[in-house]
Amino acid sequence: MTTPVRVVLVDDQALLRAGIGTILSAHPAIEVVGEASTGAQALDVVRATRPDVVCMDVQMPDMDGLEATRRIVADEALTAAVVVLTTFNRDDYLVEALHAGAVGYLLKTSRPEQLTEAVLSAAAGEGLLSPEVTRAVIARAVSERAPTRPAAQPVVPLTEREQEVLALVARGLNNDEIAADLVVSRATVKTHVSNLLAKLGLRDRVQAVVYAHEHGLTG
């Protein structure tokens, strides 16, 4: 039996935590192992439970979610991936969250299936942005030298298949969708994504999206 993805929920509103917890716990591959109502409390809960994924609110007392994300990501003893879940559709929050190390950014108006997909994607090492904010991060990061934008550099040679995969990543497709488009296995796509990230010196799929748009590699 596959071990479920362990999740910690961080939000200062108890009703929202309960609702999010209900959605995630209904999925057989997800287990909610802890909750916190402040950023400072989140650090203690994450260190105690060692989850795979943290769903992090932004505005909270004591310590906001962006600072909590920075500290969780910077702690080498922790391996949790952070998905920011917020009511704020603001590109400054989005860019700062990604710079802090978050691998996903969803609005609280997202559909339940988007939330579960974001958690499972984060646990699998894949980033996911809410469709409503994808354009914002691309526009902001490409038009300015934002923290998530890779420094200008020559295009690193990629194989033809890696270029195809990068173009599909830039369109916002996940690994399953890319696999279906290219008629290959999900594992093959994951290998191509890992290889192209390593070649380009990029941290995650979000940076790959920005890189592809900067260098005209969107297909």
Automatic annotation (TrEMBL):
Keywords attached to this entry: DNA-binding, Phosphoprotein, Transcription, Transcription regulation
Ranges where the Response regulatory domain occurs: 6-123
Positions bearing 4-aspartylphosphate: D57
Domain HTH luxR-type: 151-216
Database matches in Pfam families: GerE, Response_reg
UniProt entry tagged with the keyword Phosphoprotein: yes
The name this protein goes by in its record: Response regulator transcription factor
Organism, scientific name: Cellulomonas wangleii
